[in-house]
Amino acid sequence: MKEPIIQVKHLFAGYDGQAIMEDLTFDINKGEIFVILGGSGCGKSTVLKHMIGLLPPVSGQVLIHGQDMVAARGKERTRLLRQIGVAFQNGALFGSMTVLENIMLPMTAFTALSDAAARTLALAKLGLVDLIRHSHLLPGELSGGMRKRAAIARAMALDPGVLFLDEPSAGLDPLTSAELDLLIKDLAQTLGITFVIVTHELESILTIADNTIILEKELKGIIATGHPKDLKADPANEYAYRFFNRDPEKEKKP
Ligand SMILES: Nc1ncnc2c1ncn2[C@@H]1O[C@H](COP(=O)(O)OP(=O)(O)OP(=O)(O)O)[C@@H](O)[C@H]1O
Question: Which helix (H) or strand (E) holds 35?
């Protein structure tokens, strides 16, 4: 049975009281890989920032397990934020710390774990992303694909139920990007982690997404929602059809 883990309700997304997306309402179910799509600059990352508590929305609610993260304050907010992990596009790893130290950092900073226990747990996370052999390296010594995997391991440090990934395939070659897709699918299936991903990569979306929303700039809202394979095949949903079939020409027709 579908169980919403995140509910976005009447979210007006934007900056300084100015909405660039209006009245977004959608659910993300436990264990699914949910992809946020849309043309460049339409507001995908902005919506993501509201969902992870990095930026207050113009208005609306983001519920995690039924509790409003936007309204939450103090310890309640910290508790809700602990339930999500985030891997940003550039990895955002600390360059002067080894990969292992990067994964241990959230554990020692936010829990009472000893260094030894944090080290053991961090190595377990690195095992999940196949990076144990590289745990002693600095982020700058890793390949692009490894850096993404390290960022995912760090996002998993505190065992969140939901992982947010902003453009995970950006800058990766197609093969490395496909490997990352497999990893995401594997983590969703084996650990039951829910993924919320902002990406443009059509191949990747069709391979991994269980559900998508497509945002549209002019409309300032959701233009299509559903399984990407259904959206790709359904000409009735014209914008989604064009998006998945890379058909900009039709866009110019009335
Ligand atoms: N800090 C900010 N203050 C004001 N406006 C911003 C800020 N950051 C982004 N914007 C604007 O908000 C709009 C949406 O940007 P956003 O980065 O969310 O889009 P996006 O869909 O993620 O784009 P892309 O796919 O190109 O990364 C853009 O017009 C952008 O210029």
Answer: strand 33-38
